[in-house]
Write a structure and sequence with these properties.
Elements: H1 3-7, H2 9-39, H3 47-51, H4 54-80, H5 100-103, H6 115-118, H7 121-127, H8 130-161, H9 168-172, H10 175-201, H11 221-224
Length: 225
Amino acid sequence: MPKAIRDNGLSLFFLLLFALALAGQAVAGFIRNNTELSDHGRPEVGFGEFLSSSDFLVDVAENWQSEFLQFFLFIAATVWFVQRGSPESKKPGDEGPGDDADQLVAEHAQSDSPLWARIGGWRTALYGNSLLLVMGAIFVLSWLAQSLAGLVVINEENSMHGTALLSWLEYVGSADFWDRTLQNWQSEFLAVGTMVAFSIYLRQRGSAESKPVGVPHHISSVESD
């Protein structure tokens, strides 16, 4: 196996799964959409037209925003909250952002540390929170895309049924919007919570997301290193 592929195998594996799942969603959504149009006596659309439609965008953005919200909150929560025994958590007593020596920044940085970790000042502070900021930005943009695309979809449906069109503020305050949004959020929060809790007592040999098989339940993988 080429070194570049081996060294980036995890990212490439999930990138491939993402591409396959997105392609499958596009095909299935295209068939479903044209079936619904046909049932209502409306002309079918081409595949390219469907991919650029609000119907497709709202489904994609709806899932993206919930996933990035999950990671945003998990990253933020693990700064200040701990779960004894979970490899997803720091050990009790390590709450908080840590000091410069722990984080290897400014004068404590190593020769091969990232430039903005070595340089100090606002750039080190920004870089030190860059993961949370990027995850949060993607969540907000995905949520905005979902709301705008969803508004187009629901107004198309309202137009077909002869009911009043909604403004963006009316739509994001509607039960329809929050029903679609919260059903995704609750599943993401449940998945993260169970991963944190299950990893205290259950093991997967060889996985970076699991403690070594023989480590006691009350000790995290960080403590056992």
